Amino acid sequence: MAKRKHGKKYKLNGKKLILGLLILVLIISLSVSAYFWFNKHKNKKENDELKEKMSDIEEIKPNERIEKVKELQKENSDIIGWLEIENSDISYPVLQCEDNEYYMTHNYKKEYSKDGSLFLDKDYDWSIPSTNLLIYGHNNMSSTEMFVGLMKYKEESYYKEHKTIRFTTNEEDAKYEIISVFLSRVYYKSETNVFRYYYFINANTEEEFNDFVKNSKEASLYDTGVTAEYGDQLLTLSTCSYHTKDGRLAVVAKKIK
What is the pLDDT of residues 115-171, one digit of tens each? Predict the structure, then answer.
């Protein structure tokens, strides 16, 4: 009889241990979910408050927008400008640092953020300046922030109502007209004769520039009727796309002179 009692005792202890572990896992899961939920809503609130500083874009004069960028730079010197697509959810500061990793997971206050920030490729050289402002942003399916709205450009009807992009730095308030919208992906190093748009920062020759524009136009989902010439300042917005593995969507524009 003693052996049976010990056997039951071990079984009860085993069940209690399993139950305890399940409760612990549940508590951890709920805590993690609550943490991400809190940060998601906190970041959205901060982004909305930040957007208010650049609201009423038709009423704010270019010089005032430039001054607002300068004010933001006092909070974080990595801020190099403000990107906005009129009548859309895309209206955010753009940052640049020594790598292309940090602002994938941090907001403009340098706090952790799942949505990250919009950031300019680290290799863009302002002293030249470089040919192409290559700006990255997340397209998180569980979010509405950053470049999620960029996916709407897959539809030509959306493009026709959002043909220009506004980019304000501490020196100028410029508009860019879109020349191409295309789907792509990150290619393997072994793949040849492919269009790696994400490597194009500066054109060393007119031929390099023309090749980039030609490839962008040929890959475009529709014809915008707009092209670019050597000497034009370009701007490319890049985000993840889920049409294929390592997919990307790119929007290429040129500065309106």
Answer: 999 999 999 999 999 999 999 999 998 888 999 999 999 999 999 999 999 999 999
Q: If we measure between CA atoms, which residue out of 187, 51, 195 comes closest to residue 118?
A: 51
Q: What is the 3-state secondary structure (H, E, C) of 14-33?
A: HHHHHHHHHHHHHHHHHHHH
- Measured CA to CA, the distance from residue 206 to residue 8 in angstroms comes to 83
- Residue whose structure tokens are 């408050």: 49
Tokens read off for 186? 């990150």
The domain ranges of the chain are 1-52, 60-255
Amino acid at 81: G
What architecture does CATH give domain 60-255? Beta Barrel (2.40)
Three-state secondary structure call for residue 254: strand
Percent of the chain with pLDDT over 90: 74
Q: Do you know the residue count of the chain?
A: 257
